[in-house]
Design a protein that fits this description.
The chain is of the alpha/beta class. 22% of the residues lie in helices and 31% in strands. It is built from three helices and eleven strands. The chain has helices at 17-35, 50-58, 109-119; strands at residues 3-6, 9-15, 41-46, 65-70, 74-75, 78-79, 97-105, 125-133, 146-150, 156-157, 173-176. Bound molecules: inosinic acid and magnesium ion (MG).
């Protein structure tokens, strides 16, 4: 599919599944090289990162654990400044090496909040891995250790990313068509 429609918006293809696949292979190699000896605990941010996490995991064979959590701050196509609390994480993370898996970092507000919450539980380290990153929208200055693909400040869907709950199932990533 070159174009998709979700509710009131049209989207056109932006990143193909092949591009996403090769990006994830590269990220898996980088993460394994750094973390092989550390038995890391991956923390997957739902819902958006579920596909990314599943494909990344299949590319890694080091000892590690995975846990899923939810921390939403997004409605429609604009980031809201309200960040909801962390739910669903039951692991004891004290002394553990944490790698947060996120679908996309936009303003950076969501992950700042999450990191501040996790630090209180005294992990040994926290690293961030995001499939997509919007440098033009990023308002923070914390390091993002593993970036799949930097993209322009455009609204995208597919491969886990949604518009009002829809579009997560697409294998490609699409960007919104504005005023064409
Ligand atoms: P941030 O707090 O502004 O960094 O927003 C991060 C969250 O907003 C991500 O976890 C996504 O769920 C959502 N988000 C940001 N940009 C997009 C986009 O282009 N498409 C879909 N969701 C997005
Ligand atoms: Mg998300």
């Amino acid at each position: 599919m070159d174009k998709v429609r979700i509710k009131d918006k049209e989207f056109k293809i932006y990143l193909s599944r092949e591009k996403i696949e090769s990006t994830i292979k590269r990220m898996a190699e980088e993460i394994e090289t750094d973390m092989e000896e550390k038995d890391p605990l991956f923390l997957v941010i739902l819902n958006g990162a579920f596909m990314f996490a599943a494909d990344l995991f299949k590319e890694m064979s080091m000892p590690c654990e995975i846990s899923f959590t939810r921390l939403a701050s997004y409605q429609g196509t604009k980031t809201t400044n309200q960040v909801k609390e962390l739910i669903g994480m039951k692991e004891n993370i004290k002394g553990r090496h944490i790698i947060i898996l996120e679908d996309i970092i936009d303003t950076g507000i969501t992950l700042e909040h999450l990191q501040n919450t996790l630090i209180k539980q005294e992990p040994a380290s926290i690293r961030l891995a995001t499939l997509l990153f919007k440098p033009e929208a990023f308002q923070k200055d914390y390091p993002i250790h593993y970036v799949g693909l930097p993209i322009h400040n455009e609204f995208v869907v597919g491969y886990g990313l949604d518009y009002d709950g829809h579009g997560r199932n697409f294998a490609n990533i699409y960007k919104v068509i504005e005023n064409e």
